[in-house]
Amino acid sequence: MLQQQGIQSRHYQTNTVLTAGVDGQVEGRTMLHLVRQAPGEKPYTLMTGIYSDRFVKVDGSWKIAKRHS
Fold first, then answer.
1. Long-range contacts of 7-14 (CB under 8 A, 24+ apart)
2. Model-level pTM?
3. d(CA 34, CA 13)
4. Per-residue pLDDT for 4 more than 90?
5. Distance from C-alpha of 39 to C-alpha of 43, rounded to nearest angstrom
6. What pLDDT sits at residue 45?
7. What is the chain's alpha carbon radius of gyration, rounded to the nearest angstrom?
8. Which long-range contacts (CB under 8 A, 24 or more apart) does 61-69 make?
9. 3-state class of 4 per DSSP?
10. How many CB atoms lie within 10 A of CB 14?
11. How far is CA 39 from CA 4, 8, 34, 64, 69, in A?
12. In angstroms, rounded to a whole number, what is the distance separating the alpha carbons of residues 20 and 31?
């Protein structure tokens, strides 16, 4: 619906910090900056936040097992 109105959103995810746990899992925290822009308007910050993730290794590849925002 937003796309039909020409509204664009950008999700910037930065400053990821990873910490290895003794159980072989990895905890991560990533900052979020969500920007929105309507046609003819300046972009504005819609929200900011932090993602808290738990990563696990599955068949040699790291996967997000859990995410909280």
1. 7/36, 7/37, 7/38, 7/39, 8/36, 8/37, 9/34, 9/35, 9/36, 9/37, 9/46, 10/34, 10/35, 10/36, 10/43, 13/51
2. 0.75
3. 9
4. no
5. 9
6. 98
7. 16
8. 62/26, 65/25, 69/32
9. helix
10. 8
11. 11, 8, 17, 35, 28
12. 19
Amino acid at 37: Q
d(CA 65, CA 33) in angstroms, rounded, equals: 22
Strand 44-58 relative to strand 26-37: parallel, antiparallel, unpaired? antiparallel
Which residues are paired to 44 by β-bridges? 36
| pLDDT tens-place string over residues 10-44 | 999 999 999 998 888 899 999 999 999 999 999 99
State both tokens at 8: 């664009």
